[in-house]
Design a protein that fits this description.
The chain is α+β, with helices and mostly antiparallel strands. The chain has a domain of 336 residues: FAD/NAD(P)-binding domain (3-Layer(bba) Sandwich). It has 14 helices and 22 strands. Strands 6-5-15-16-17-14-18 form a 7-stranded mixed sheet. It has a 6-stranded mixed sheet with strand order 8-2-1-12-21-20. A 3-stranded antiparallel sheet has the order 3-7-4. Helix 3 packs across helix 6. The protein is globular and about 75 Å long. The protein starts with 7 loop residues before the first strand and ends with a helix.
């Protein structure tokens, strides 16, 4: 027996999360289904986004032209992320985690085992030297991937740096069927079964819908429903504030998001056209807001942050996206990934007008696992830090999750990467993060020894040279941006 389809969706809050959801639903829901966004003042977009390559697939669903998007959102290309300052014993040490394959499987053995073998003989260079994206990123160069599998450029992928307000404007333009108005939430009225009966706005309007999407910063709607308590993750992720400011642009911005650990927390720099968006993440118990502004050298917007997730992001007829559902220090360069995952799963599990409990249960399972895997990557960056400042020392004292502890132990032992369900980051990304942050396995896969050492080292040297040559042939990032239509 078929069930009645959705006839109305109300998105409360707006911002990046609300408009990613509304724009996607506008593409997949029939015209008879009314979609409405109520934009609240506290959800107004600010700052910048540093995204993974997967977001470009989402833009394909929306029919969003990349060149037009980058003009509207002051976008630049992103080949990966640079991390520096993670040890105060060697403050100049840094590494780049690039969006491309590192090396190549040799004799059926994962490349990093051949690298480990050669590194112990002092013949390997840095692991990132085998990633075209990392090498080109350090050089400040960019070229789009090649579709020719014989070309080293075919190993590349790339994400984007986007101004958040410009990104929202581009999303809105793809969804003219979505009705919108500004408004503030005065009350959330629940029915006897715990579902949302209506949302009352400050001017007295009652918003009624089959499905409510909570895109508010504090989860005002989902928090009113039963079983949607907040699961706190602040013990291992210590920063509870973000200070945001834009500074003057650089003449030759790298196609990288740059992260720098400092005593008070960490700084992120995202290059945009016309300026760089700088974020300071810090703990308010150790650094006050005025001190944070001083670090950034002037005025800054302060945004509260509480690391964690909802016990249930979908409760009854309410589904939370963005910060209403999940908040995580933006330390992985995966902004908007949790929103994209949530929207994609909502589309796959679209509820009927009278609710879909089984779909909600599956959605909540998938989103919880997705958050936990991304959380582990962020916590790893605290676990491996050797800084002795108060914030970093405090974060290291927290017990990592069992999944992260096991993953790290397996890699330290034999260079094996354990992957769980719903991983945001692929095996190569974990290898790059482990090795880049100084975690070296005690032994390599002995199957790598089948290849004679001199032959393996000659192959590695050729790979390094080929990758460096390909990176040098790319145009500077600033030139690549000018060449966009």
């Amino acid at each position: 027996m078929s069930r009645a389809p959705l006839t109305s969706v109300a998105v409360l809050g707006g911002g990046v999360a609300g408009w990613m959801t509304a724009a996607a639903l506008a593409r997949v829901l029939p015209a008879a289904c009314a979609i409405r966004v109520v934009e609240t003042a506290d959800a107004a977009p600010c700052g910048a986004l540093s995204t993974l390559p997967a977001l470009r697939g989402f833009h394909g669903l929306l029919g969003l032209d990349e060149a037009a998007l980058m003009r509207t959102a002051r976008g630049t290309f992103k080949l990966g992320a640079r991390y520096g300052g993670w040890t105060d014993q060697d403050p100049d040490r840094d590494h780049v985690e690039g969006f491309s394959d590192a090396g190549a499987n040799l004799d059926g053995v994962a490349f990093h085992h051949h690298w480990l073998r050669a590194a112990r003989r002092g013949e390997a260079g840095r692991y990132e030297d085998y990633s075209l994206a990392a090498v080109a990123g350090r050089m400040g160069r960019f070229a789009p991937p090649s579709e020719d599998p014989r070309s080293v450029l075919s190993t590349l992928s790339y994400g984007l740096h986007l101004d958040a307000a410009g990104y929202v404007a581009a999303l809105r333009a793809t969804a003219p069927r979505v009705a919108t108005r500004a408004g503030e939430i005065a009350d959330v009225v629940l029915a006897d079964n715990g579902a949302i009966a209506a949302v009352v706005l400050a001017d007295g309007e009652r918003v009624v819908a089959d499905l409510f999407v909570d895109a508010t910063p504090d989860g005002r709607l989902i928090g009113a429903t039963p079983g949607a308590a907040w699961i706190d993750e602040s013990a291992a992720l210590a920063c509870d504030r973000l200070a945001l400011r834009e500074v003057a642009p650089r003449a030759d911005p790298p196609p990288l998001t740059e992260f720098e650990a400092i005593p008070e927390g960490w700084l992120r720099r995202v290059p945009l056209r016309g300026g760089d968006a700088v974020t300071l993440a810090y703990a308010s118990g150790l650094t006050d807001d005025e001190a944070a502004r001083d670090i950034l050298g002037g005025e800054a917007t302060i945004v509260p942050l509480r690391n964690g997730r909802r016990q249930r992001a979908w409760s009854g007829n309410c589904l939370a996206v963005g910060p209403a559902a999940v908040q995580l220090e933006p330390l992985n360069g995966d902004d908007a990934q949790a929103i994209q995952s949530g929207v994609g799963r909502l589309i796959a599990l679209l509820p009927a007008a009278d609710g879909s409990p089984l779909a909600a249960t599956e959605y909540n399972r998938l989103m919880a696992e997705t958050f936990d895997r991304a959380r582990d990557m962020a916590v790893l960056r605290y676990v491996v830090a050797t800084r002795t400042d108060a914030l970093w020392t405090q974060a290291r004292q927290a017990e990592p999750s069992a999944t992260l502890a096991y993953k790290q132990a397996q890699f330290e032992s034999r260079g094996r990467v354990v992957l769980y369900d719903e991983e945001t980051f692929v095996e190569g990304a974990w290898v790059g993060a482990f090795l880049g942050h100084g975690i070296t396995p005690r032994r390599h896969d002995r199957l790598a020894d089948r290849l004679p050492a001199d032959q393996a080292e000659a192959t590695l040297a050729r790979l390094r040279g080929m990758i460096r040559q390909a990176a040098q042939a790319m145009p500077p990032h600033a030139e690549a941006l000018k060449d966009q239509p």
